[in-house]
Amino acid sequence: MPRGGARPGSGPKPGTKYRKRARLPVATEEGAPKMTQAQRHSALKRHIALCKSAGMNDEAIAEVIQIPLEQLRAAFPRELKFGRDIVLAEELARLDAASASGSVTASKAILAAANGENPEIEKGGKRPSGHQATVHRLALQSLQGGKT
Amino acid sequence: MSDEIPFVEVYKGVGIHDQQPRGRIGNVVKPEIDRVLQMSHHKTLADHAADQANAPESRLLAAAMVGAIYTIAVEERRERPPIDVDLVKATVAGLQTRKWRSRNFYCSLLDTRPPGQCRAVKRETPLPADD
Fold first, then answer.
1. Rounded to an integer, what distance in angstroms lies between the CA atom of residue B94 and that of residue B101?
2. Which of A140, A141, A144 to mutate to test the interface with B (most CBs of B within 10 A)?
3. Beta-carbon separation of A148 and B40 below 8 A
4. Which of A37, B82, B91, B124 could form a disulfide with B50 if both were Cys (CB 3.0 to 4.6 A apart)?
5. B61–A143 CB contact, under 8 Å
6. Can you list the residues of chain B whose pLDDT is less than 50?
7. What is the ipTM of this complex?
């Protein structure tokens, strides 16, 4: 082995300007910003409100987010009581933003919600009163027309 | 004279057939109409329309509502309910006409009756032969 001098294969590799420090792979997605505690809490509240609006009971929600039922009820009483209304209000706000940027579909959805016809946001598979009224109207029309 | 059964009154837009006592109209027919108006599922409505034990007026309303549900699904480009609308209409065939009205039961002569399983309600007074 020659004395002194650089050893073969040592030094920066071809194509690299500087030595790059080895980095361990991170657990989060590459490029995704880490959430603050407040953001995580807000996301959790939104998640609970969504589950409640979908008709899940408190026990199921506690199981899904893996906290005790008593802790869920103590920490998120507003979401458990008004979850459906919270989701509805947030979705209306999103629709409003889309409507303001020119979406006709969003405008129609807002008008339909204002008239009580909101087939997308109903719990338990219950049809909205607007739809039922339309069914009645068409049925009575066909009865009176003798088309049955 | 028209072959359609005449109405003695109209209850919530549904014509009430003649030749039945007032008591039956108030205690049976109108409550059934109210019940049908509360229904929203196509299967429940179709079953009600097919059941001979129900009043003809409510059966006709139920069949009309099934047709309306299907029509609305078509117009709004939604998934159509998995039900045969023609079959539902066939189950209430003849309920609105004098020609096919049963003289002895509150149903149509076209209602199929397996032996020993007639579910239709018997008329208090049979209809006259020339009606």
1. 7
2. A140
3. no
4. B91
5. yes
6. none
7. 0.79
